[in-house]
Amino acid sequence: MYAALGTLRFADFRRGSDRMWRDADLDDTDIDAGFFLWEQPIVTRFVKPADRVLVVGCGMGRDLIAFCRMGCSTTGMEPLASARTMAEKVLRDRGLSATVLPGYVEDWTIDGEFDVISLLACPYSLIPGTDRRVAMLADARARLSPGGRILFSFLPSSNIGPRSERSLTLSRLVGRICRSDWLVESGDQFIRIDGEPLTFMYEHVFSAGELEQEVARAGLRIAFHDRASSTVALTA
Length: 236
What we know:
Elements: H1 2-5, H2 10-22, H3 28-31, H4 40-46, E1 52-56, H5 62-70, E2 73-77, H6 81-93, E3 99-101, E4 114-119, H7 130-142, E5 144-153, E6 155-156, H8 165-177, E7 188-192, E8 200-206, H9 210-217, E9 221-226, E10 231-235
Parallel strand pairs: 1-2, 1-4, 2-3, 4-5, 6-8
Antiparallel strand pairs: 5-10, 7-8, 9-10
């Protein structure tokens, strides 16, 4: 499997992630659930009514609705057309207003300045490659208003067992031979999509100190870190 992973390119993981989330089946109860219990402390502390909020990976609108009901001026970024259509519908049905735009966060197709950029549904862990994640954070920092905050959650390394160094070395060797635009790193994990050959969803889990290094490289600092829920607030 790791040899095969080395032949893939960055766009292949986007397709795998899109395929996984396209099958998500949420009803009105899920969409109206508001902030999860583990999201509530960081949102209460770092988000104020009337803040300009960008929700990255807004999906079908759960957190868009929650931020709108706080009184925030809310914009959503979502790559899946079907999820954007659903988000727009559920907002209309509830008499709420938010802008929902297409795009992947690592491409930063959205202009504007925001008081809060929210990645609370773990999209940070879905971006392959340390350098690509750091570049995304740096771009986010450039779009913060003075005193702005970036809120996100991530997957800690306790979620996964150790990977064989032989497997990692093999995958990286194949990747170099195939001139892939990414190379597997320690902490990367892959979920095979059933019924589709060589289609995987990518996730990265962070070892101790790894997240802090990426944040510092992006010119940001950690203002809040709840280790129990793996939620973080960053400021410039």
